[in-house]
Amino acid sequence: ANQAITEMFGHRVNELETMSSEEFLALVHPDEREILQARLENWEKGVQPPERYTLKVLHRSGEVRIVEARTVAIELQGSVALMTSCIDLTAIKKVEAELEESEKIQRLILNASDALVFLLDMKGRLISGNDKFFKHMKCEVSEIRGKNVFDLLPEESARTRQSAFEEVRKKKKPVVFVDMRDDIWFENSLYPILDT
């Protein structure tokens, strides 16, 4: 046990080092105890546990922590033992959940429009778009996210739209213009999203 583990579980090093296997198992979240117990029983039968896995553990305060555990078999005092190192992923998982929720809200807002709506970064790379935009582009989000949107358009459309994009980027003011692509007229409205 070390300082990082004591912070993860809220117990002092000497407490952790003297815990029985039952006491240590009690530090694992109830939803995961049976799985971990089965892994330990299988290890005693000679089945190697997964080298890397994620599980929920309990801090002394009762707070649930999410950790990534890495387990390897080692020789200790003439016997085979398991050595496990843990990395606390709680903060990362919380940020991931918040980001996922934020993306859901963003999709709802984008899909509220009947227009083709998409977000670009300052270099013209696609951040997101509404379902109507991806349907029009005949592709999935994952296929073009991060790509320069102007590279996806015919040359003439790309030139016109990139010129307007550059104007919005430089002046930080909206631009509205009309152009044609595939015999369809498009009214394009470009709006900068400014940091406040």
Describe the structure.
The structure is a single chain. This protein is α+β, with helices and mostly antiparallel strands and 196 residues long. The strands form 3 sheets. Strands 1-2-3 form a 3-stranded antiparallel sheet. The model has no long low-confidence stretch (mean pLDDT 88).
Please outline what is shown here:
The chain has 196 residues and is of the alpha+beta class. It is built from eight helices and seven strands. It has helices at 3-9, 13-17, 21-25, 30-44, 90-111, 131-137, 141-144, 155-171; strands at residues 52-58, 64-76, 79-88, 118-120, 126-129, 175-181, 184-190.
Features:
elongated; three-stranded antiparallel sheet; single chain; about 200 residues; alpha+beta; two-stranded antiparallel ribbon
- Which H/E pattern describes the elements? HHHHEEEHEEHHHEE
Q: Choose one word for the global shape.
A: elongated
The stretches of 5 or more residues where confidence is low (pLDDT under 50) are none
Annotation, overall tally of beta strands = 7
Number of alpha- plus pi-helical segments: 8
Strand order of the largest sheet: 1-2-3
